[in-house]
């Protein structure tokens, strides 16, 4: 866990990696709830029997956006911010879903701080290069640049 207490601490961490975090299992229940919440109930995600029969992946897989939605929780395992009044998700750049995540798989993140731009009045915009890893896989399942604004 990397703890940041100031903008200066963030700037000093540029180019360094936080993580990896703990493994998090992607369950069929999580996939089903995500499908219900988003209206994306494609059979490859929510019909395990059909997915085992017809899917090129041999079973159900998580939505790419479900994997990405784990970002705040998984980043909280590798970064902590003390003295921050507000933390705001600012956006994402260059998101790629590079491999499927089968239901039952475990994922975690590593994050390299690419940039910490001081915005004045206690604000800083941070850019993290985030890599989602899947246990036992040789390549990432998702890569993205995550942007946030923090106010100390």
How would you portray this structure in words?
The protein has 152 residues and is of the alpha+beta class. The chain has a single domain (2-151), classed as Roll (Thiol Ester Dehydrase, Chain A), CATH 3.10.129. The chain is 27% helix and 38% strand. Strands 2, 3, 5, 6, 7 and 8 form a six-stranded antiparallel sheet that branches. The chain is elongated and about 55 Å long.
CATH architecture: Roll
**What is the CATH C level class, in words?**
Alpha Beta
What oligomeric state do the depicted chains represent?
single chain
Count the strands?
Answer: 8
User: What percentage of the residues does DSSP assign to strands (E)?
Assistant: 35-45%
Rough outline: elongated
Number of domains: 1
> What's the main sheet like?
6 strands, antiparallel
Gyration radius, in Å: 17 Å
Q: Compute the separation of the termini in Å.
A: 19 Å
SSE succession: EHEEHHHHHEEEEE
| Individual helix count | 6
Round the mean pLDDT to the nearest integer and report it. Answer: 97
Q: Can you identify the CATH superfamily?
A: Hotdog Thioesterase
SS content category: alpha+beta
Which segments are poorly predicted (pLDDT under 50) over 5 or more consecutive residues?
none
Report the CATH topology name. Thiol Ester Dehydrase, Chain A
């Amino acid at each position: 866990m990397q703890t940041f207490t100031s903008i200066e601490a963030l700037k000093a961490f540029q180019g360094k990696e936080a993580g990896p975090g703990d493994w998090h299992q992607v369950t069929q229940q999580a996939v089903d709830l995500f499908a219900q919440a988003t209206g994306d109930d494609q059979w490859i995600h929510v019909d395990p029997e059909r997915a085992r029969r017809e899917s090129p992946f041999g079973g159900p897989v998580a939505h790419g956006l479900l994997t990405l939605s784990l970002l705040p929780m998984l980043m909280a395992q590798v970064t902590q911010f003390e003295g921050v009044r507000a933390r705001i998700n600012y956006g994402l750049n260059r998101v790629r879903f590079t491999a499927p995540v089968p239901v039952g798989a475990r994922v975690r993140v590593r994050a390299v701080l690419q940039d910490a731009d001081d915005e004045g009045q206690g604000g800083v915009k941070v850019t993290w290069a985030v890599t989602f890893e899947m246990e036992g896989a040789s390549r990432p399942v998702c890569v993205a640049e995550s942007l946030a604004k923090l106010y100390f």
